[in-house]
Design goal:
This protein is an alpha/beta fold. Helices cover about 45% and strands about 10% of the residues. A hairpin with a 5-residue loop joins β18 and β19. The longest helix has 21 residues. The structure holds 3-hydroxybutanoyl-coenzyme A.
Length: about 675
Amino acid sequence: MTNPISTQRDGEVLVVISNNPPVNALGQAVRAGLKEAIEAGLADDSVEAIVIRCDGRTFFAGADITEFGKPPVGPSLPEVLDAMEAGDKPVVAAIHGTALGGGCEVALACHYRVAVPSAKMGLPEVKLGLIPGAGGTQRLPRVIGAEAALPMVAIGNPIPARKAQAIGLVDEIVSEESLAADAIVFARSKIGQPVPRSSEGTANQDGVKNPDIFDQFRAKNGRKMRGFDAPNAAIEAVKLAGEMPFAEGVKKEREMFLKLVTGTQSAAMRHYFFAERAANKIDDIPADTPLIPIKKVGVIGAGTMGGGITMNFLSAGIPVTILEMQQDALDRGTGVMRKNYENTAKRGRMTMEQVDQAMGLLTPTLSYDDLADCDLVIEAVYENMDVKKEVFAKLDSVVKQGAILASNTSYLNVDEIALATKRPGYVLGLHFFSPANVMKLLEIVRGEKTRDDVLATCMKLAKTIGKIAAVSGVCPGFIGNRMLSPRQQQANALIMEGANYWDVDDVLLDFGFPMGPFQMADLAGIDIGWHRDPTKVTTVREALCAAGRFGQKNGKGFYDYDAARNRTPSDDVKAIIADFAAKEGTAQREISKDEIRERLLYPMVNEGAKILEEKMAQRASDIDVVWINGYGWPLYTGGPMFWADTIGLDTIVAGLEKYGLPVCDYLRGKAERGEKFNSQ
Ligand code: 3HC
């Protein structure tokens, strides 16, 4: 293997260059090469300063994640960094792209950091269920203070170079075009001066003077961190940085890192990291498939869904023509979009100029003819096959040939919709999740006739508008809603059999979902789709509506709500359910939380297995991507299929059999062979 590290000399300055595409991950060869080059530079009397930079698109983007979970091969990153920092010759990090994780730790161990304006720095280890393991938790607070370090270490979002400079993490911003040369000039200017070492910094004393900052941070970010182990470890490590000498702090950091890296949460989150990237790839479509340029988009329907979909494109700078049947609906939809943008601006995440820019890209219309020159039209109309077919037939007749026609249907047969057109190859499903301008997931439904370039174009487009895409075949409910259905069936059956509905919700909450099905029903409104006849009661939902319990909107649904929308279980509702069960002849009994959890989640795994058996998903990890991004499945369990792997497929099969629930052949076969869904 060629050495990814090379060196060049510029007079008395040694330049150490890494070239390890695609992201200069700090794998074993890079670490070994760096160590050797730095040691040689420190030992060579003719070298008076050292610059470290990377070729390619980015500075080191972190440790090589694929090495985690395997036996470590030296030198370790901390070893390399300690040697680098200890020398008396100035070492300068020249940063472009993203200096992340171990890459940021390299930069911190350097005595100085210069960066181009577009560079970003961060410690995103927490997103992999980890804390920095090469001194980052101890050096960063010593350089920028504990308070500024907390979000970087415990939340993990990277910060832009100028912000890094403002908080003392970057010493100088240099030109995008001349980083290599400017870094050498900078390094030369520091020759002969005593070197500042991050490990000796004192900015961390802010956390000692005001120890409340740690609890305040926990209180402020508690919801975001719920259920995750790493953020608490990260906060603890930053706190320790103020309380103990560097060498001891680093030892503690290492212990915490090793505990996390060998744990299930980090394994799950590393699985997810690669799952998200894999989901973007379509096995049978070459990566170089020519794409269809999408310069203008049409959206049919200006309701909540159509409006949300539209905003994605406007925010990405793509013009949208939005169609409604009535002027007032069009005005209302356009008004809601502007208001949403204005609210974002009020929260400081957009300027009013950007709001105007985005809205300036919108053309509202009442005429189908205005969609003629769109490259992609997405319909977000009423979920009814006849209505959809009518819309598609109309679109086919007015929209130019070669344009893509997409349905936002959440469960209808996309192949049948495609047959309403003379261009079924250009038809597919683009299933956005509500609120569509916020939710990350985009389920892309590949019809039987969908062309490769159409699918590849939409996968790329998903990235452009900031979505995480996963491909599904055509089946009722696609991947996401199809798996939701058995969970919902079990939730309904469980409460009939005597489980407390609040226990059903709490089990899912404890598992890590943001809410359970009955809370969800209350939030969405129990009266959605209700026939409005209080004398006709055939379901629990109808009984609740008949009793005037419509959900959060009128303060009572499954739960009673106070003014702050806190929920309290209702005895009346429990009685309504018991009454129903009696009429049905279903005996009620006490049901444990374990049974509730198993009956809610195991059938989902079985449905996921069926989806794989029928090849409706390309791979198990795509299912994990769908459920984590579209339905709030807790990231730290890795998604339903990875979670099933961690608890054992034999356990799932045994559980399903215990409750008399179906087990598909695919799942049974895998369990019998001792296999997992995910091979890693
Ligand atoms: N290790 C191994 N592979 C990595 C990697 C890493 N740290 N970072 C990215 N890759 C791979 C990706 O899997 C992908 O592979 P593929 O092409 O086969 O799918 C390829 O590099 C390109 O990555 P992206 O598709 O993500 O490229 P983008 O340009 O969209 O994003 C990035 C680049 C912002 C650097 C993004 O890849 C990223 O966020 N990487 C992870 C950064 C990170 O978490 N670093 C911390 C690692 S843990 C650590 O450092 C521990 C230390 O404290 C000891």
